[in-house]
Amino acid sequence: MALLIGCSFALAAARTFSPGLFSYVTKRWGADAASRVGEWRDFEARHAPMPTTPDRILALLRATNAFWNDIPYQEDVDTWGDANYMPSPVETLGADNADCKAYAIAKYFTLKDLGVPVRNMRITYVTVQGVDEPHMVLAYYPTPDADPYILDNITGDVEHASERDDLQPVYSFNDDDLWTVGSNRVVGPSSQIRVWRDLQQRMIREAQH
Fold it and tell me: Of 116, 7, 135, which is closest to residue 61 (Cα–Cα)?
């Protein structure tokens, strides 16, 4: 994936499921898609605010992983005509299918909506043992040096990274920062990732409906 230097785009801290958003979704994908967005809204309402105990946070991670893993799998190249496309959660629900990037992105923004600090999460590109293609997961770090929990569409289990010896990280990022494999040192802003910038811009436009 090409990394291009550019400016950063900040998203609003709280998501608004406005009538305009539902109208936009209905016009683009139909009433069933609007119902799926409504299910996402209801999921976030049920799980807000963010829990504060480790057990309840783990339960939230598992619930979020399960909610999005229910979306049928399909490669982005077949859905969007671009293997590198990063769909927004609204687009994923509209299309009613997702690949690994879409799952990880949707889980990231759902947890962010619920108050999980961005600093605790990294969208992570990995290679999978025995699979000759890249894969994406979401990593949740209870503390900066912790063994992170992995939210993955391959499995319904939320496990520590140390339990996933099939995964080899390549690089990771969140709203702010970019890390490379084997390093806890920030190597630059995540705005270097062009498709991540494009996604954030689209989500800003979605929020204006």
Answer: 116
